[in-house]
Amino acid sequence: MADRPRRIPEATVARLPVYLRSLLQLAGEKTGTISSERLAEMAGVNAAKVRKDLSYLGSYGTRGVGYDVEYLLFQMSRELGLTQDWPVVIVGIGNMGQALANYPGFTSRGFPIAALVDADASKVGHEVHGKRVRHIDELPDIAAEQHIAIGIIATPAHAAQDVADRLLAAGVTSILNFAPAVINVPATASLRKVDLAVELQILSFYQQQRDNEGDGAAAPAPSADAAG
Amino acid sequence: MADRPRRIPEATVARLPVYLRSLLQLAGEKTGTISSERLAEMAGVNAAKVRKDLSYLGSYGTRGVGYDVEYLLFQMSRELGLTQDWPVVIVGIGNMGQALANYPGFTSRGFPIAALVDADASKVGHEVHGKRVRHIDELPDIAAEQHIAIGIIATPAHAAQDVADRLLAAGVTSILNFAPAVINVPATASLRKVDLAVELQILSFYQQQRDNEGDGAAAPAPSADAAG
DNA sequence: GTCAGGTCGTGCACGTGTTCACAATCAAGT
DNA sequence: ACTTGATTGTGAACACGTGCACGACCTGAC
Ligand SMILES: NC(=O)c1ccc[n+]([C@@H]2O[C@H](COP(=O)([O-])OP(=O)(O)OC[C@H]3O[C@@H](n4cnc5c(N)ncnc54)[C@H](O)[C@@H]3O)[C@@H](O)[C@H]2O)c1
Ligand SMILES: NC(=O)c1ccc[n+]([C@@H]2O[C@H](COP(=O)([O-])OP(=O)(O)OC[C@H]3O[C@@H](n4cnc5c(N)ncnc54)[C@H](O)[C@@H]3O)[C@@H](O)[C@H]2O)c1
To answer: Residue A31: which pLDDT band, with cuts at 50, 70 and 90?
Structure first.
C-alpha cells in the first residue's frame, strides 16, 4: 500500500524469475520459511545479493528467521505481473515456432499460447498443438481480440524487423526475438533476444582460452549470467 | 604476433558475435571498410562501445578511414575460436532437442551437430536429421571419438544437473543449458543458459509497468541486452 | 528479563561497464 | 607541403552492479 521509493534495477529484475522458480519448488515441498543463504544456493547466486534484490520488493523478511515462502511468492508474483495471464502470439511457425507452440511450460507459467501466425500460405490453416495457424495479416485483429501484449518472433532473420514492426503496429509492445538479427523498437516497447549461435560463439571463445592454457595466466570462468 | 596485454571483458566477449554477424553481412555485400559508427548502428550499440570493444582485439582500424571488413572479420573469428569447427552434442532429443538438431544454422556457423543422445530407450536408435540417437551411457566414448567440447542440455529440468555432470565427466567443458534449472559446474568449465520462461517473465514485469503508467514516473525501457 | 544464536537490511567500498570528449592519425585535394 | 575532413584509440568521469561487514531485530531458552 505505502509507496516505497522503488525502482528495481534491471539486473535484479532478471534474477527475480530465478528466485521465483526456487520459491515454487519450496512451496511444493511445504517449506514454511527460507533463509537468504539457502535461497541463494538454490538460485546459484550469493546471499547478500539475494537480500538486496528482495529488499527492492519491500521488507518482507524477518530477522533471525528468514522469509515466509508463501508470502514472498505472492509479493514476487505480483511484482513480476504474474497475477494475470499474458497471452502470447508466436510469429513464424517453422521448426522452432512449432517446438515452442508444443511446449506446455509456457501456458502453465501464465503465458498461454493464444495465437500462431505465419506468412506462408501453405502453413496457414494447419493445426499445431490444437491451434490453427493464421495469416500474419490478421495480426491486428488477433492481437486486439485476444488482448495479446507479448509476441515471439521465430521467423528467418531477414523478416524479423518487419515482423517486429507489424507486432508493434498491432499493439504488441513486448517482444522476444529468436531470429539472429538486431531489431529496433521504440523506447515504449520491450525487446529481449535469444540468439543460440551467439551463445555457442561465446562458449567457443572461453573454450579456446582453456585449450590454449599455459600460454600465460589462467583464463577466467564466464559462469552463466548474461544468458538468463 | 606481438602479445598485447589483453584480457577481454566478459561484456565485450558477448558482443563480439554480434559484430561478427554484421561483418559477415558486409563482406557479402562486398563492403571494403566500415566505420565504428555504421557498425554500431548495425549491431544496435553505441559507436564508442564498438571502438573500445574492437580495441581489445588490437589496433586494427585506420583513423580517418575505418576498419577493413575482411581483416577485422579474420581477426575476430580467430579471437572467438571460429577458425576451427566445434562439434556439439545435444542431450535430450524431445521437442526442443529435435528442433535444434534440425537447425542448419549451427553447422553453417562452425558448430556441427556431431551427436544426439537421450536416456529414453524408445528414442535411442531413431534417426533425427539423418543422425541416429544414441544412449547417454555412451557419452564418454562419443565425446572422445568426435572430440566434442560443447554440449547442449535439452532435457527436463530435474535431469539437468545429472546430465551436466555426465557431460563434464565425458570431458565436455562448455555447456549450454535450455532446461529451467540452476546447475553447477566447476570453475574450469563454462556454462551459459537460455531460459525462455525467465525471458517472458522479465517482459511481463516491464509490460505491467507500462500498463500501470501514470502512477508516477515513466517506466524505463529494458532494451535487449542481457538476453544475448 | 536477559542472553545467545540466527538472519535480515543496508551503508560502503570496490570492481565492472558505459559514455564522453579529444588528441592522434590518416587520406585526399590543392 | 599544407590544409581539411574524417575517424580511430583511449583517458577520464560517470553509472551501475557486487559483496562485505555489521548494526538491527527476532525467537527461544532459561
Ligand atoms: N530451429 C532452431 O533450432 C533454431 C535455432 C537457433 C535459431 N533459430 C532461429 O529461429 C528462427 C526460426 O527458425 P526455424 O528453424 O523455425 O526456421 P523455419 O524456416 O523452419 O521457419 C520459419 C518460419 O517463418 C515463416 N516466415 C517467414 N517469413 C515470415 C514473415 N515475414 N512473417 C511471418 N512468418 C514468416 C516461414 O513461413 C516459416 O514457417 C530463425 O531466425 C532461426 O535462425 C532457430
Ligand atoms: N520445447 C520448448 O519449446 C521449450 C521451451 C522452453 C524450455 N524448454 C525446456 O527445454 C527442455 C526440453 O524441452 P522439451 O520440450 O524438448 O522436452 P521433452 O520432454 O519433449 O524432451 C525431453 C527429452 O529428454 C530426454 N531425457 C529425460 N531425462 C534424460 C536424461 N537423464 N538424460 C538424457 N535424456 C533425458 C527425454 O527422453 C526426452 O526425449 C525442458 O527442460 C524444457 O523445460 C523447452
So the answer is: confident
- pLDDT grade for B215, boundaries at 50, 70 and 90: low
Distance (Å, whole) CA B142 – CA B115: 7
Check pocket membership of A133 for ligand 1, CB cut-off 6 A: no
Distance of alpha carbon B114 from alpha carbon B131, whole angstroms: 8
Q: What are A121-168's pLDDT values in tens digits?
A: 999 999 999 999 999 999 999 999 999 999 999 999 999 999 999 999
Domain B10-79 part of CATH 1.10.10.10: yes
Size of the A and B interface in Cβ pairs below 8 Å: 239
CA dihedral A133, A139, A141, A147 (to 10 degrees): 90
Which tens digit of pLDDT belongs to each residue from B161-178? 999 999 999 999 999 999
CA–CA separation, A21 and A85 (whole Å): 17
The secondary structure element, H or E, covering residue B79 is helix B69-80
Asked if B106 lies within 8 A of A150 by C-beta distance, the reply is: no
Which of B29, B95, B205, B223 is best to mutate for the A interface (most A CBs within 10 A)?
Answer: B205
> Cell 524431445 sits at which residue?
B94
Q: Does B221 touch chain A (CB under 8 A)?
A: yes
- The full set of domain ranges for chain A reads 10-79, 88-194
Find the mean pLDDT for residues A194-203.
98
The contacts of residue A12 (CB under 8 Å, 6+ apart) are: A52, A53, A56
The pTM score is: 0.95
Model confidence at B28: pLDDT above 70: yes
CATH of A88-194, one of 3.40.449.10, 2.30.110.10, 3.30.360.10, 3.40.50.720: 3.40.50.720
- Take residue A136 and report the three cell numbers written for it: 500474419
Query: Per-residue pLDDT tens for B85-100?
Result: 999 999 999 999 999 9
Contact by Cβ (8 Å): A165, A91: no
Contact B155 CB / ligand 2 (< 6 Å)? yes
